[in-house]
Amino acid sequence: IASPVAFDILPLKLHAFSQSTPTGLDCVGWKRRISAPVIADGALDKTALTDDVGSEEDLYEDFRSSNHRYGHSGGGGEQLAINELISDGSVVYAEALWDHVTMDDQELGFKAGDVIEVMDATNKEWWWGRILDSEGWFPASFVRLRVNQDEPMEDYPLKVEGGKQDFGMGQTTKDQMRTNVINEIISTERDYIKHLKDICEGYIKQCRKRADMFTEEQLKTIFGNIEDIYRCQKKFVKALEKKFNKDHPHLSEVGSCFLEYQTEFQIYSEYCNNHPNACMELSRLTKVNKYVYFFEACRLLQKMIDISLDGFLLTPVQKICKYPLQLAELLKYTNPQHRDFKDVEAALNAMKNVAQLINERKRRLENIDKIAQWQSSIEDWEGEDVLVRSSELIYSGELAKISHPQAKSQQRMFFLFDHQLVCCKKDLLRRDILYYKSRINMDDMEILDVEDGKDKDFNISVKNAFKLHCRDTEEVHLFCAKKPEHKQRWLKAFENERRQVQLDQETGFSITEVQKKQAMLNASKQHHAGKPKAVTRPYYDFLMRQKHPTLPTTLPQQQVFMLAEPKRKPSNFWQNISRLTPFRK
Q: Where does the UniProt annotation locate this protein (predicted)?
């Protein structure tokens, strides 16, 4: 997925710690003190807590300080192991999960799939790495450690006689590499199921017992459809286990499992789209101490590792990202003669398509904030909000418009969204200010290309023109572009708009009323506050943690599309101003 929101809070080797209780914490003592009041009604009993150890605040501070004292964190074990390898002179490689585009010369840019040599991993969020001759900081959340660290940088140029090296039992080097990948797929799936179970039984079950603290709507916002994902993944793991050859893992045939469940994996789209809302709702709740204590108690009772709830809720987002990477690696070490080769190849394409669908829906949802803020900047807006019918800006630009034969040509700015074309007028003096004029329902329109010359309907000579014709009312709008290439771009944009509408209908994409209202509310607040018109990203701010002072100050974000701002056109207005009588705007 291109959207880099899936911070790697749960590392690749997390299963090494998943069965253990938090280091340096007397979990037995804690469970003895809080298990009875929580299990009884699903929440902390203040009396039971304070009788033993004083106030809730003292208890929680003691818990936090004990964690800090022993330095236990979600990624601490893996991070320590990486640094030990580096300090011993070993070369540690990581593969990029997403593109990292940066303008900072202290940061290392790369593309998804690039291999990075990790040179320093002392900081939890930013690592120092090298690609060829370039070195710099990069976000640790954008990469994963390679399964086969001993593998050379090239695809497979092992210098062994005949391209084969015997590992016993008739296995070649490539077979051993395939064994490593298969084992990783199986082990990470088992760990993932445990995390999903812990969330469903450790958090959701307890939350539902506390109707005084959580409404069903809140729980739906926080946890999304994670219970559906849990049920789907349990079936998927069982299918994987049946195909897993314990004695000879490299002979396992797991490709068919991914093909069987590719449609069901689309339920991740709903979860990924809801995840920003979950983070914001959690951020709001955890400002109140009783929710902080409650979530910590749930985690301890379930004997989960020391990661906050938002970290666990991130695992499904991470998981769907990693399937194409795992399958690509599996395909690389699967011989074409292997019985699993064609299925793995097809599974890789299928999971890429699933990830692409989820990513596209995610991007569309991120766009609505920008569209809402664009609308709030338009003066004299009339009618319903753009987001009532649209969620995507297809194209924008300047055109001359004629609505009927007797009308004069009007130079206007047009914004083509899915389902509608919005018309705006530039301010006479401040060309960056736009006034709302009208809109056209694209669902009722057909696009007609017009040849250069005299138009019969409007009885005028036209150049670079096209028409929008309403099938129901026979209403016709004539548009003229300045250049032939501009006309072609508009014609292509109209095709893309219809294609987008059809795709949304086929895939069932839609934006909820809550999301629309929230986007407009945020845009309205920002507009009245007089802040610069830019996308605010509380979602990313919520995920951020403290950073090393010498490191980059912000985590990189996915590029958000910008609405095309009309360029300032050269004008002789100010040259002729002396000829005009004095005026005030």
A: Cytoplasm
Give the integer Cα–Cα distance in Å for 418 and 493: 10
pLDDT of residue 508: 74
Q: Strands 476-480, 453-455: parallel, antiparallel or unpaired by DSSP?
A: unpaired
Instruction: Using a pLDDT cut of 70, give the percent of the chain over it.
Output: 72
The DSSP code for 202 is I
The per-residue pLDDT for 7 is 33
What is the residue type of 137?
W
Give pLDDT tens digits for 506-561.
877 778 787 788 888 888 877 666 544 433 333 334 333 333 334 454 444 443 33
Name the β-bridge partners of 126: 139
The DSSP code for 162 is G
- At position 108, the amino acid (one-letter code) is L
Phi, psi dihedrals of residue 92, rounded to the nearest 5°: -110, 125
CA 227, distance to chain mean position in Å, is 20
Transcribe 552-584 into DSSP letters: -SS---PPPP-PPPPPPPP-STTTTGGGSPP--
Phi, psi of 128 (to 5 degrees): -105, 130
Secondary structure (3-state) at 483: coil
For residues 423 and 430, the answer to whether their CB atoms sit within 8 Å is no
All structural domains of the chain, each given as residue ranges with its CATH number in brackets, are: 76-145 (2.30.30.40), 173-366 (1.20.900.10), 392-509 (2.30.29.30)
**pLDDT score, position 443:** 93
Sequence-distant (6+) residues with CB within 8 A of 281 are 218, 221, 222
> Does residue 335 contact residue 341 with C-beta atoms inside 8 Å?
yes
φ and ψ at residue 361, rounded to 5 degrees: -65, -40
Sheet holding 126-131, edge to edge: 134-139, 126-131, 115-120, 92-96, 143-145
- Cα separation values, 164 from 76, 146, 176, 399, Å: 38, 22, 11, 65
Q: Are 93 and 145 in contact (CB under 8 A)?
A: yes
The answer to whether residues 58 and 46 touch, using CB atoms and an 8 Å cutoff, is: no
Amino acid identity of 78? E
Residue type, 76: G
For 375-434, how does the pLDDT look when each residue is reduced to its tens digit (9 = 90+)? 999 999 999 999 999 999 999 999 999 877 777 888 999 999 999 999 999 988 887 789
